[in-house]
Amino acid sequence: MTAKLGPTLRIAIVGAGMGGLATALALARQGFEHIDVYEAAADLGFVGAGIQVAPNLSRELQRLGAWEYMETDAVEMHTVSIRGGTTDEELANQSLAYIRERYGQPHRVAHRSALANALYEACKAAAPRVAFHFRTAVTDVDFDRHRIRVRGRDEAEPGHWIDVDVVFGADGVKSVVRKCMLARQGEEDDAQDTGQAAYRIMLRRGQLAHDPELLALLESNSTSRWIGAGRQIIAYPISGNTILNIATTQPDVNFAAAPTATWTTRADKSAMLAVYADFCPRVARLLRLVPAGEVCEWKLRVHRPLRTWVEGCVALVGDACHPTLPHLGQGAAQAIEDGAVLAVVMGKLTDVKDILAGLLVYEHLRKTRAERLVEEAAISGRTLLHADPEAQAARDAAFRRVSTGGPNPDKWVDRTVTDYVYGFDCVKVAEEQVAGLM
Ligand SMILES: Cc1cc2nc3c(=O)[nH]c(=O)nc-3n(C[C@H](O)[C@H](O)[C@H](O)COP(=O)(O)OP(=O)(O)OC[C@H]3O[C@@H](n4cnc5c(N)ncnc54)[C@H](O)[C@@H]3O)c2cc1C
Fold first, then answer.
1. Considering only CA atoms, which of 391, 341, 379 is closest in space to residue 363?
2. What range(s) does the FAD-binding domain occupy (predicted)?
3. Nearest protein Cα to ligand 1, atom 2
4. Every domain of the chain and the residues it spans
5. Among 36, 100, 210, 349, which is 20 to 30 Å from 339 by CA?
6. Residue 262, Cα to own-chain centre: how many angstroms?
7. Which residues pair with 79 in a beta bridge?
8. Which residues contact 305 (CB under 8 A, 6 or more apart)?
């Protein structure tokens, strides 16, 4: 495709996370030729975790030509099993066959680095349209003169200004671009503690081989979730069933006790074992296998919904404007949908003076959906983590009714939610609606 502004428009993307990479790739495929991606980290960053690749995500990856780079890593999920954390009693076991039938793609999971690398490789294949600038942090945005300030590794360095026509802030939950935008709008940046943290762990086949019950988790193409008061653990195989990915959620104790600027840290294994000490023997065996130096903890933060994602020639993408709890497995998917829709809109512009109008169309097409999914993830989290015994009993009874067609309290596999989330083709809808909105 050749966007009218493709040969001339100078596009700056802040952040080479899932949203930034997808935005760069989608714009390159629309015919934009001058896309610069500024990434503070030295490379694609710490990505030692699994990620849900729901139908709405795989559909976009296929459309963007990134899928072929990660196809062999992805594992198709056939079932999801919910169990009591302390008892190991199976409360529900739901087949995911309906997902492929209903949405045209199966539900898959993959290594986060496979997803990031796939987007990156596809961007490189679009070179020289996309140029990456690693170790380059954006520190300021000048909304009046259309420029960004960047600096290299030396934090004492004042940095220098770069003139641009449009800026996409895909710099994650701690977004500097959002901060600048809110300051400009006279509002406060308000990243909020959720009081929750997450351990992310990976176990390789060799570490599980001696324990048939644990090995079965790697070989079963099933997602298993154990739930207990205030805590939950999810496990699924990734990387062609060679790695078992485990992610937990529990009350944030460690970050709250010792606040740091970073929200991801190597964690103490004995502290992790203590948090899950009352969980069943299977979970205990799993957690004990983790090498002491390989426990990583993430602090989970969100931000109140923003009034707008746009200011002048600047728009926000992904976690910068809709950071989410992980309970719906849609954070990266929504960041990538943002990039895909943004490119559709940008591709229709014929004059730079229409950039603001175009960015507002992007916001119109994306904001309601992304914010609803943030809310659904929060609701799902509250349900899964109930501490009150009566609420737990009601939830568990609901899980037991899933086999007879009842709604699933774990919303990422509840049909009403999956119809809304997985059944939605964001690019098709954008293509249909964009002309009427410009
Ligand atoms: C525990 C946990 C589990 C999750 N599981 C899933 C899941 O299964 N499925 C799913 O879809 N999502 C999941 N998510 C959410 C998902 O990881 C995020 O929603 C997604 O990564 C957001 O992408 P992003 O590009 O907006 O931000 P990020 O991935 O955070 O990328 C932002 C990038 O910007 C860079 N950056 C920051 N500031 C600057 C600056 N000033 N200048 C230049 N560069 C900068 C950062 O270094 C980073 O590379 C999970 C999140 C957590 C915490």
1. 341
2. 10-376
3. 326
4. 10-71+109-190+304-386+413-437
5. 100
6. 18
7. 95, 222
8. 322, 371, 374
Residues sharing a CB contact under 8 Å with residue 156, sequence separation 6 or more, in sequence order: none
Percentage with pLDDT > 70 across the chain: 98
| Per-residue pLDDT at 47 | 63
CA–centroid distance, 285 to ligand 1, in Å, is 30
Q: In what order do the strands lie in the sheet with 166-169?
A: 130-133, 34-38, 10-14, 166-169, 314-316, 310-311
Amino acid residing at 64 = L
Q: Taking 90 as the threshold, does the pLDDT of residue 1 lie above it?
A: no
Q: What's residue 245's pLDDT?
A: 96
Residue 51 Cβ inside 6 Å of ligand 1? The answer reads: yes
Distance from residue 64's CA to the centre of ligand 1 (Å): 19
Task: For a ligand 1 pocket test, name from 319, 412, 421 the mutation site with the most ligand atoms within 8 angstroms of its C-beta.
Answer: 319
pLDDT at 361: 98
pLDDT in tens, 143-202: 999 999 999 877 778 899 999 999 999 999 999 999 999 999 999 998 888 999 999 999
Encode pLDDT of 393-435 as tens digits. 999 999 999 999 999 999 999 999 999 999 999 999 999 999 8
User: Cα separation of 343 and 427, whole Å?
Assistant: 9
Q: Answer left, alpha or beta for residue 146, where phi above 0 means left and psi between -120 and 50 means alpha.
A: left
Token match 């939605």: residue?
424
Distance CA 208, CA 349 (A): 54
Q: Would you identify the CATH topology of the domain 10-71+109-190+304-386+413-437?
A: FAD/NAD(P)-binding domain (3.50.50)
Could you tell me the pLDDT band of residue 259, with boundaries at 50, 70 and 90? Answer: low
Q: What is the mean pLDDT of residues 242-271?
A: 83
